[in-house]
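haha ok so turns out i had the wrong file open the whole time. this is the CORRECT one, sorry everyone. sequence first:
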Amino acid sequence: MAEEGKRKSVRRKNQTVNLDTLGLEMGNKPPQALDVEEAVLGALLIEPNCLDEAMEELTPSCFYSEKHRMIFEAMRSLNNEHVALDLLSVSQKLKAQGNLENIGGTVALAQLTQKIGAAAHIEYYIRILKQKFIQRELITASYDILKSSYDESINVDDLIDTAQTKIFSAIQNNVKKDVEEIGKVINDAMADIQKFQNLEGGLSGVPSGFPSVDKITLGWQASDLIILAARPSVGKTAFVLNLARNAAVDFNMPVAIFSLEMPSIQLAKRMMVSETRLSADKIKGGVKMEMHEWVQLEEQIKRLSKAPLYIDDTPSLPVMEFRSKVKKLVKQKGVRLVVVDYLQLMQGPAELRGMREQEVAAISRTLKATAKEMNVPIIALSQLSRQSENRQGSNRRPQLSDLRESGSIEQDADMVIFIHRYDYQGLSDNPDDIGRTQIIIAKHRNGAIADVDMRFRADEVRFVDEQDSIISQAAAMDASSVPPGYIPIGSIGGADDFGSNPEFM
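then structure:
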């Protein structure tokens, strides 16, 4: 059927992109295959076997012709109503929608049945239509990006974020993964089981460094989105830095940390406090260190300084930029674990700004999609609402409903972990409860939920397993715990031996 009338414009917010006009400007027609569109529609009218595949793979937008889109929309409506497709039913549906005359009447429908190719080729025809549609979507997105790039009023960061979002959406929304046969999936599963059986410690994921946690999680699993939530000042950042340090230093697994709240140098200092057991005031520069403490510092940060840890402290990081950076880090650095501190400080798609709940939902969906696409676990920190503080007694224990700003965080997460401190805001006056912590695994899509008892050592900015706490404290007092290279006071020269770094002087 020959194309009549004007090509419908593709709308993007307040501007209109006419692909025909744009094609004339470029000296070429927009990607299209009108004869293939006719063949597909004709096949659907007389070959019922083609229906399921076409309805699964195609949308009205896959058709370039406005008339063809109207016809396919009518067919899709009939299919949803479980009505068989034929000339009569489709013409009646078009008439009810007020589009029968717009497509050229019943004569135009009848002509479609004359232009059908072999029904066996329907899969090939569908692939052509999808290809042309993706090309048109990319043209439209590129044109929008071009026009926005000339607009001096648009912030360049918003421009980059919008450009990434448009290109990603044009591709992601139109690429579907094929189904897999169960036999192949089982073979892959058997290979995984065999691989995990040969692993030491029985961990199939990235180790946390805490045996009691790893016993439940078996490590942070690839493609999982893990939400770590707590009220402010409970120790979210400290705990996740412990996790990152353990994976990178003890197990030599590359870890990427996206710190939206804290500059990279502050993160480094906090990790140095945990690593050296020196006072935080001394590491931060508030209290002058003794000479032997300088030696202790330099010796004990050697492993940390060589660890495969990568820090990005971009503030208000757009979620699409985050996705691009993770993709690059996984490919170039072999990153095995990604940490985000914290989720609510990320920027969602530009078009959702001002609609906070929808923006947070888009962020959590993108985090999950990124984890799955790159096959790495992502640990994202999140704030809790004040609901838990308003409850009394044991009811102040965090719950899934306390997750702030969007229920999609709970929905998208494979695991939700809460940090519950007994000494936080006067929940307990018992001196034995100082630092006492419960790591609450409240949601675990692929495993058990449980509580893990730990102890937070505020002076060392680190968590330890509760059962190891007494042993660790005793070991810290033992002379054998003095690091290699320790030199007693008075046996070294002056401060010049350690440089003049103002961060430590």
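The first strand starts at residue 10 and ends at 12.
again sry for the mixup
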